[in-house]
Amino acid sequence: GLSRHYGYPDSVLAEMKPGDFVLIQMGHNDGGAIDGPKARGSLKGIGNETKDVTFPDGHTETVHTYGWYIRKYIADTRAKKATPILLSLTIRNIWKPGADGRQHIERDMGYDAELKRLSQQEHVAYVDMATVEADRLEASGPEKTALLFPIDHTHTSAEGAELNAQSVAIALRNAHSPLAAYLKPH
Fold first, then answer.
1. Which one in 26, 63, 71, 142 has a CA-CA gap of 20 to 30 Å to 98?
2. pTM recorded for the entire structure
3. How far apart are CA 65 and CA 15, in angstroms?
4. Nearest Cα to 111, choosing from 43, 170, 48, 35?
């Protein structure tokens, strides 16, 4: 099933209309466990491998690869005559020293190459909002960035969410996406 990706078919597909643009962005939970109490991960890669997982309550779930889920969302979006767009992942507040001796924020959780490959294989636009967001966060520095992540290194405050939304808009313009025509001016 698609239970790993929290209700996508029901809520999003039901509201999708021909002509819509659908930004597909996922991966923060895909690196997690595929079984156990916090089962939410997917298998690595973009192939068609699966693994059947049985939970303590006895129910079984077939877990697919990250790429399989993305391709399913692309196909579901196209079936509704909407336009899918793959979006790189929002940045986490994880910093490491670079070769230049300065702190640099993590820019890729390990899905960028897969998203780019899927973009080419499926003929879907890939919009890199992560680089835009990472550049903006690095310009602020680790201390100011930490204020945007009050709970943990993944979930932002409302102000951080605004920054993410701005980064998506900038990235759509940078990619010359037809969706950019629907955005408010800078």
1. 26
2. 0.89
3. 26
4. 43
